[in-house]
Amino acid sequence: MLESSLHFMRSESGGVNVHLRRAMILPNTIIVGAPKSGSSSLYWWLSAHPEVCPSRTKETHFFDDEIHPRFNANANCIEHGLDAYAEYFKHCSTTSKVILEATPIYMYQANALKRLAQFSEKPKIIFILREPSQRAHSQFRFNKYRLGNIEYSLTYDAYLDQVKDTTSDPLERGLYMKYIDRWLQAFGREQVHIIQLEQLQQYRVAEMKRLSDFLGIDAEFYDSFDFMRRNETRKMRSTKLHRLGLKLQPLVPQWLQEQLLVPLYLKLNSTAMPPVSKGDKARIEELKPMFVSENHRLAKSFPEIDLSLWQ
Q1: pLDDT above 50 (res 7)
Q2: Residue 18 pairs with which residues in a beta bridge?
Q3: Which residues, listed in sequence order, are joined to residue 3 by a DSSP beta bridge?
Q4: What does the alpha-carbon distance between residue 268 and residue 270 come to, in Å, rounded to a whole number?
Q5: pLDDT for 196-222, tens place per residue?
Q6: Kind plus residue range of the DSSP H or E element containing 100
Q7: 9 - beta bridge partners?
């Protein structure tokens, strides 16, 4: 997507001179949801396609509702214009059919919904969704074992009580159609594509070819593609070291983190995740009924969703 911007300057005579800045390259495809549903794998699998140019940073967080020192302090829609956003895509060619970024938290962000809908050419929107109760628990484990911002002694139930009625409430985030409805209204059904993680796991080639057709790129590329899982949650060996790393993280360019430092760091300071406890497994099953109504609304709007995979 090319976005031209007009720059107005008042001349000494009082007239207005209009200068057309260099056209910015902006994304025409964005993965906007949901967190802990396989967006990292999807982003990298799409990025490997020769007709796709991905952002240098997978999650730019440019259109988040808040400024966070770790994610978007140097480039955000609150303090900066689209020129700052375009920096993530300046390496892309205008001949690329798909220019991609993926910030799953956008699904819940008012700024993202409003600002992206204001693009002169609205981007295509991709949602990748996971059974809501499993996704909520995965968010808890990711925060606890990978990010290290939850004490190891905190139970899942205690965590749910702690974040209830906040923007981080993982159960609220699982009411998918509450949020997707807003995107449908802003972008139109023809601009929105839904992927169900459980189907993607079982039918990778077929699902990626279906997505390719939606994006207008060569679907046969995935017939012989070597799929690899990305961003698997790992448990940190040293929480002190991990917290130090999180403090230093804003000082390192995100593209360097993602491509080199994070994979190396995880090898040195992580181990396999502990198994899910029987109590947590039971809690996951107990919470499933709260999503049934919204899940049926989702399947009604998107018949490709197979609710039997979420039972």
Answers
A1: no
A2: 8
A3: 24
A4: 6
A5: 999 999 999 999 999 999 999 999 999
A6: strand 98-102
A7: 17
Question: What is 136-197 written as a DSSP string?
Answer: HHHHHHIIIIII--S-TT--HHHHHHHHTTSTT-TTGGG-HHHHHHHHHHHH-GGGEEEEEH
How far apart are alpha carbons 86 and 103 in whole angstroms? 15
Which residue type occupies 95? T
Residue 276 tokens, joined: 């899910």
Give the C-alpha separation, 65 to 76, whole Å: 9
Nearest 10 degrees: Cα torsion 213, 218, 222, 227: -90
Placement of tokens 């970024």 in the chain: 101
Residue with tokens 């059919």: 97
Locus of tokens 């940190």: 236
In the beta sheet, which residues pair with residue 194? 127
**Which residues are registered as beta bridge partners of 101?**
30
Q: How far apart are the first and last CA of the chain?
A: 40
Q: How far apart are CA 61 and CA 220, in angstroms?
A: 32
Do the beta carbons of residue 169 and residue 143 sit within 8 Å? no
d(CA 52, CA 97): 6
Please report which confidence band the pLDDT of residue 152 belongs to, taking 50, 70 and 90 as the band edges.
confident
Q: What is the mean pLDDT of the chain?
A: 86
Q: Is the peptide bond before 34 cis (omega within 30 degrees of 0)?
A: yes
Q: What are phi and psi of 270, to 5 degrees?
A: -145, 160
CATH assignment, 2-8+26-233+273-310:
3.40.50.300
Q: Is the pTM of this model over 0.85?
A: no
In terms of phi and psi (left: phi > 0; alpha: psi -120 to 50; beta: otherwise), the region of 57 is beta
